[in-house]
Please model this.
Amino acid sequence: MSGIFATCNRNGQPIIEAKLDGVLSELSRWQPDNKGVWCNGSAALAHAMLWNTPESKLERLPDTLGQLVITMDARLDNRQELADLLAMKANPLSQVTDSSLILAAYERWGEDCPKYLLGDFAFVIWDRSKEKIFCARDHLGIKQIYYHLTDKLFVCSNDLKTLEQHPDIPGDICDEAVANYFVHSELRHPTLTFFKRITKLEPAHSLSVTAGKIRTKRYWRPKDAPRVKFEDAETYAEKLRELLDLAVEARLRSDYPITSHLSGGLDSSTIAVLASRKLRDRGERLLAFNWLHEPTEEDDPDHYEWANSRAIAEKEGIMHSYVSLSAEDIFRFLRTDSIADGDSARFWYEYQIHTAAQEIGSRTLLSGWGGDELATYYGEAYYSDLLCQGRIFTLLKEVGQIAAKQKGNSARRLAGNLYHLVLLPLTPRSLYQFMPRNQCPGKPSFPFVNKDFLPLVIREAKKEAVLTMQPQPTIRRHMLANLKNGHIQSRVESWHAAALKNRLEYSYPLLDKRIVEFILGVPGQYFVDDYRTRYLFRQAAKGLMPDSILWNNSKREKNRVDRLLTLMYNACQMEAYTEKLNNRASRYVNKKKLLEVLENEKAHSSKKEIIENSIAMATAFSVMSSFDN
Model:
């Protein structure tokens, strides 16, 4: 989570250091453990260090190697492999920093060096001999790089607030990004930020900039993941378990207490238990957080939303904590935190977790995020995948068994299931939207968007519907679509920005490149067995939690979601009366309509309907508070 910054004048003019004072101050606003600046001629690099791994305490960044200068935010997981490839024999590996490994890799392989790195990284190298800036972002985009580029100037950082302070970067708002935010209640776009002049480098991409040339290059493609061929499901599960162990172990390389999510679901429970057992072996204890509030007299403490995480924590000796969240908390976040600064996902519970983790000195928060879309995949494309594999008998047998459990004419049930589960996913995108009962959304409705801005929002919604609503024909293609649709990236980038002030960084074992490539290579039939979804992962997680949780686990979180929507509605009510005093973002938000809905419950059939609109309301208020005219 270290802060990085780099700039170069592409016209060769020397950097005026005084112009960077505000930028460098913003880069270190969260009180880093160390900081440094390198400035020479037409380029400058800066760094704000968060110590976490043992090796990070040896870093003195920006660092140099011959004509190369680097600033970076990185945790490399293949340090021994790199050292062997680079023949780095002079020092014990424990005394070799990640920046030294990256510089040596660049010196050896040039712009191809990211291909050889494993872990979470974002780095910038200034090559003085070629007067070239080279930037790279890790395979899954866990670390960020944002940049501003003109004919004369290049500026980049992993922190949007730092770039906002640069005197030569205009602060014009990107309307397309705001429209995207209204559609998703988070910014899901591979390159856009909320600023017209600031672009995001995509995951698995590098960027090189010289006086006369700009080149963006993709160095890794998930679709190129090789097919995996083992003899049986047990062998696939054993391999996945091995990779899970490696991914968790790599993310425990910290000199500070480790914290984790523990909702009681498959993803977070597996990660938390593996981490807890490894920490216990070295005499440490894991603190884990459930997103729910502590059960009250009105709640059922034996309901699985509370009971699962509690049972796992008690069995494994994990310190277990609930999250206390109020409408006043959400109101405060709405008023003070800007989505323009990078946190567009607004996951309200996480803010309280950040504070609690910081209080015990933690600098690593483990999360199971990304599992549902990949490693713990539900198998939505399972039946059409069977057809693509030529397994016709199995397909007809299983779809027939589904039809037998449904009411009505058996032939009609069978035909209906074949249509929805097999035919629709195989329909070309150009025809899918015209197919009957294809589950495409109807005319999108955005009641709180200003009528002049509404056409752009509707165009964005229709574009997204065509791109994302069609089921994919195979499990592999569905997973690739999950990686591409922006939801994983939005959460990762938002949590990075939100946790910065608490000196905390997220780690996602289920988004480890090794696991992602393996899962993409597994044949589709291993994700579902006897109607049990997430089958491969459940097999791999045997022994990590009680079987009653492992095999009956569900992602339905009605208590948490209903309470959260109620709190959001109450927070929006509080927001409404203060917003009457302001004139904010009228270009984007129909404030009059928003206040009418909040103040006049007669406009709706029930308060439940208003609560169901709370996400749209909070989205509108986020825009209003972030883009003040």
User: Anything to note?
Assistant: The CA atoms of residues 501 and 567 lie 24 Å apart. The first strand starts at residue 3 and ends at 9.
